[in-house]
Here is the input.
Amino acid sequence: MKESPPRTLPNDQDATGRTFGEEEQSAVLAALASGTLTSTKGSFVKQLEARFAEKLGVKHAFACTSGTAAIHVAVAALDLEPGDEVITTSITDMGALTPILAQGAIPVFADVDAHTLNLTAATIQAVVSVRTKAILVTHLFGDPCEMEAIMELADQAGIAVLEDCCQAFGAADQGHPVGSIGAIGCFSLQQGKHITTGEGGLVTTDDDALARRLFLMINKAWGYGDQNPDHYFLALNYRMNEITGAVALAQMQKLDHSVASRVANADQLSAALEGVNGISLPLGGSGRRHTYWRYCLDVDPHVIPGGTVALGNLLRARGIGCAPRYIQKPAFQCQIFTEQRTFGTSKWPFTLASADAVDYSPERFPGTFDALDRVLVLPWNERFTSDDVLFIAEAIRESIDELKA
Here is the structure.
């Protein structure tokens, strides 16, 4: 079989894989011409917040400086006590975990489904304790968690649910957009997301009291607009500036197209790979709308010699910058957790944790280790063409045939 030659695919780390154009340029120039670059006085960030809230069908949206900032203000908005537990996923970006520790709370890792790499109601239930005050779910790769079951569990236990939607713009579960289901939704505008400002974030809620806390957490707890404003509690400055807001506002106009392109291309790839022995495709279905921040293959090492690493090596040689394993190890194996490196040598807030909360024994996470051993993450963005997708499909088929030969 003739091998497909290497190909340069659109890359979301530069202009080839991004949708920047005259709209963003005009918006930035308008922000500069206004002479007002702080969102406390300007209009672009306020317009972004109003438009994003309308898009999700929620009452409130607030812009901030990053996805990590979005997670931080969401956790802080719950006003947890030191030592309270927040259940979260073992496969996530560290930016979704450090805010929990920064608020003096304890991240408690739940296992994940080995195929979707997402939390489930069952894996969450296994680690709920009397100290659990919140659940932070991550809709990984744009694939929503089983929110109906998770919300039922949380509501019965009186536990708040926070949604990490940083990879999941436009995703939905049972017709409900992610970010509108739990108490607070968190989004990222980082370079590689569905829409981008390089760095930036958004938080959403329907709860007026939480909205007040979110607003204050972004603004150093200063009561802008209050009759007698003050700095009411400990909080940082996470305000988005007007230039970033202007870019985000222009990008919002392109979100529907970006999501539709990613989904259509994913459907094309799934159809092209249907029936290939040794790989499983993203599940989809079951009332969930997957919006494909990335497209993931589940690779069976018993069928494909060398598994994800061998297949990934062959794909990279063909110009497909894929990521075997996604992350090299579960989050709880990073030094911040294994050595409890936080504030000086204090190990706080780990000093407040129960033994079970910091038990990272591998046997407690079979789904996590199985998932990382089998997942191969393919690059994905809205600038892919049908020819790009066909090239990827053919490269996967050829590489698998080569490994099996």
About this structure: The chain has a mean pLDDT of 97. The CA atoms of residues 82 and 104 lie 5 Å apart. The radius of gyration is 22 Å.
